[in-house]
Specification:
By secondary structure, this protein is mostly helical. Helices cover about 85% and strands about 0% of the residues. Keywords: Membrane, Transmembrane, Transmembrane helix.
């Protein structure tokens, strides 16, 4: 069923197998980050503790958003590598800041 489709797939910079492995790794990281963020948000809703909300936001910005930015911007909008790197880095820094605020601040 997928034989002809897989035979026509071409990739730049490496074999198709490596591209599929990288995609699956990124998808797995995204799913895990979303699951952890959702668990933190659910904890916030149960006890209404602001640090849990900041933690959920930080995890989302640190792991989930950069994965989306690095995958969707070049794929859908044709964004350059510099643009995606800058936006992903800004999201990661914001996520780390939110997590640091959770740990050391008084949210």
């Amino acid at each position: 069923m997928f034989g002809p489709l897989l035979q026509t797939v071409e990739s730049e910079g490496g074999t198709t197998t490596i591209a599929i492995a990288v995609f699956l790794g990124q998808a797995t990281a995204f799913v895990i980050a979303c699951w952890i963020a959702k668990r933190s948000y659910d904890g916030y809703r149960d006890v209404r503790r602001p640090p849990l909300l900041w933690l959920a936001l930080g995890i989302t910005l640190l792991a989930a958003v950069p994965t989306i930015v690095r995958f969707l911007l070049p794929t859908l909008l044709g964004a350059s590598s510099v643009t995606t790197t800058v936006l992903a880095s800004v999201s990661e820094i914001a996520g780390l800041t939110a997590i640091l605020y959770t740990v050391y601040g008084r949210p």
